[in-house]
Amino acid sequence: MKWYQMDVDVVEQKLHVTTKHGLSDKQVEQRRKQYGENRLASEKSTSKWLIFLKQFQDFMVLILLAATLVAGMLGEYIDAIAIMVIVLVNGFLGYFQERKAEKSLAKLKEMSAPVANVLRDGAWQKVLSQDLVVGDVIRINSGDRIPADIRVLQANSLETEESALTGESLPVMKHASPISRDNLDAQDQVNMSFMNTLVTRGSGTGIVVGTGMNTVMGQIASLMVKTKKTTTPLEHKLAELGKVLIAVSLLLTALVVLVGVYQGHAVYNMFLAGVSLAVAAIPEGLPAIVTVALSLGVQRMIKKKAIVRKLSAVETLGCASVICSDKTGTMTENKMTVKEVFLNDKSLYVTGDGYDVKGNIFFNNHKMDRNYPNLESMFLYGMLCNNASLMLRKGKYYVDGDPTDGALLVAARKLGLSHQLYDNYRIIKELPFDSDRKRMSVIAEDENKMRFLITKGAPEVLLPRSAYIMKEDGRKLMRGDDQQTIKRAIDGMADNALRTLAIAMKPLAKDESLDSAVLEKDLSFIGLYGMMDPPRKEVKQAISESREAGIKSVMITGDHEKTARAIATQLNLLPENGMVLNGSQLNNMSVGELRDIIDQVYVFARVTPEHKLKIVEAFQEEGHIVAMTGDGVNDAPAIKASDIGISMGESGTDVTKEASSLILMDDNFATIKSAIIEGRNIYENIRKFIRYLLASNVGEILVMLFAMLLAMPLPLVPVQILWVNLVTDGLPAMALGLDQSEDDVMKRGPRNPKEGIFARGLGFKVISRGFLIGIVALIAFMTAYQDNSDNLIYAQTIAFTTLVMAQLIHVFDCRSEHSIFARNPFENKYLVLAVLSSILLLLVVIYWEPLQPVFHTTALGLRDWALVLGLSFLPSVLFGFTKK
């Protein structure tokens, strides 16, 4: 179909839809079955069988399997079968870990999927872009990513950037008129917009004519379908660490084997023991466990309303030293309410809060009505120069669109102006708001075909453009004292933490040029709206807790300096000697000059998105790790440049979300604090199970090495070594990844991003605890062997049980940076269940007679358990009384 050649009404007929009503639910369902989901094909995921087989591709596991095959050929069937079963169980555990991580990441991707604003059954609603179907009517705004191929129905200064398709970075101006020429390339179809291109300016509506692989982008995607798996810096660091640990483990294992052979042990027995020890000691599952811990942490963050788009952000969150946050909607409720109106040189007060339409307008305790000069005009113009909708749902009003626009609609309702008034006016053209213009204008036409311009925006932008002012007795020339009166009103509102918005108008002749450069001049100034966006109740505490954690909170806003200062003071964000900088001051500073004073600045007012980039660079040059929030398309560069880019889930544009590492589903500053707590905790949990796994591995190697050096029999047989690895390394290590944060996690300073894995004494803890675990297992073996040297199996059972119990007790020691006594051991129910499961499996191996010959064990008495438990508690209790 050559949609670009058709009139809008022909497109409607072809697709059986009206642009005033949209598709019905039944039509949507039918078309989804016909066309499928609106998504591009991606590389097929690895099959479950391949993931399972991948668990056995490790070189040492293959050697172990070969060794068990030899054992079977030599008649050691029980050992061979037991080792095969343990290797298989280990494989299944690795498989489930990897699948869990894969599913978590898939869910994460789904959570951060873009949404589209679509008209269905006569009502605008937000749906996932993948749920769009051919015929859907959608609304697009600056900063949106086009969700499908669309035929433009209406364009208000609409421009899109199509470099993803054409390679041309210059924006393309769009219109809605049909194009008669034939065989046009995509870049020449200027009444079409294409999937994955970007709206850089303006707004518009369109009708979906192509979805998924049936789009221009789909044709390109079909040529090459590849996905690239990225690893986080931490995963990369651990992979490098793994290589070193493998080398050390193999060296020590070889030493054990050589000493054992030298002491007279059979070469075959030492070889099998050595390979088993290497398989158990090498932490080849460490990267997989890290991925699982990261993905599980990400799931917890989602429950706290924070979606992580890039796993590397989880690590960086623990290093954050500065949070640069928008004020509106993030530190405040984003429910703008008009509280004061400046009109006819007088201040009028408006009652009511939030989006409740109940309220009145007063002057000196006298209730004002629509007859008060200019009041109805001012509120009517606020309704017309507006892109928001006031919706009633379950008895409560909410705003679909910008909260500032919503506040104007609510104020108009309080005066008695209804939505039906729109039917009396026609909007001919819109000059959309952007951060450079700081204003929005519409050209409206009334029932009598009279045209006029309405402009709303920042007072400092509209005042210089106003040649006239509306007074009680009509339109007058703007004089110097009028400007001074207005400026005093702005200052007064700002002192009361009110955000100011000016509104003006201009009558237009029928034949007057609609060129925007000329239009917004010689305006007639009508009045000011003073709006309150109250601080969120939870933000004050979040700022205080962040300060305790060594994190500086900085407010960035486009609002007036006095308004910003008032809100910052209410939130306890601005200390007594803290500085407030405004946009004009920033313009006169270089990044270096700003860097010199940046640590004293807590509030940036009247800033543009370009200023945000300068602020980020100044903080970074001062050595800070910066988290930066934003919602508009122009915020994307600053968000991308920051160490942790944070976008708004409710108000943010698609482009900003794509540039960010973290999305706040509720646009709330307190959620950033929760995400930082979780980020710190995830990193600490990774350190916990690294500490646990490596200390356990050190203990296993040392008990074998010391026994060989002392010319003693093998304290552990190969199948026991593998069983220890299975029982202690699997579930308990995973449960540590689910551990709750320590009470003082937000009382420590931010982590140095250059900090190594073994920093803060972790290396000492691994070596010292591992050494003691090995020593107590050896003492248990020597004690049992001396008491009953004729029964080697009894001594090996004692050593085996002591090693397992010492590791399972040590796992509780790993929960705290301080000692085993610092935390309630029953706090982590997953860990308690994991340890109980491991103990149960240990008891089965010791006491169930059919398994005793398989694992070379024998039943233990109470006296034996007293020895085992006494020695097993020793490593953790001994260090429990020290800070290290």
TrEMBL record:
Domain called Cation-transporting P-type ATPase N-terminal: residue spans: 2-76
Keyword Isomerase applies: no
Pfam families assigned to the protein according to its UniProt record, in alphabetical order: Cation_ATPase, Cation_ATPase_C, Cation_ATPase_N, E1-E2_ATPase
UniProt cross-references to InterPro entries, sorted A to Z: ATPase_P-typ_cation-transptr_C, ATPase_P-typ_cation-transptr_N, ATPase_P-typ_cyto_dom_N, ATPase_P-typ_P_site, ATPase_P-typ_TM_dom_sf, ATPase_P-typ_transduc_dom_A_sf, ATPase_P-type_domA, Cation_transp_ATPase_P-type
Parts of the chain that traverse the membrane: 49-71, 77-96, 244-264, 270-296, 689-711, 717-738, 766-785, 791-809, 830-848, 860-881
SMART domains from the UniProt entry: Cation_ATPase_N
Record keywords, A-Z: ATP-binding, Cell membrane, Ion transport, Magnesium, Membrane, Nucleotide-binding, Phosphoprotein, Translocase, Transmembrane, Transmembrane helix, Transport
Membrane topology: Multi-pass membrane protein
Compartments, record wording: Cell membrane
Entry similarity comment: Belongs to the cation transport ATPase (P-type) (TC 3.A.3) family. Type IIA subfamily.
Listed NCBIfam families: ATPase-IIA1_Ca, ATPase_P-type
Official protein name in the record: Calcium-translocating P-type ATPase, SERCA-type
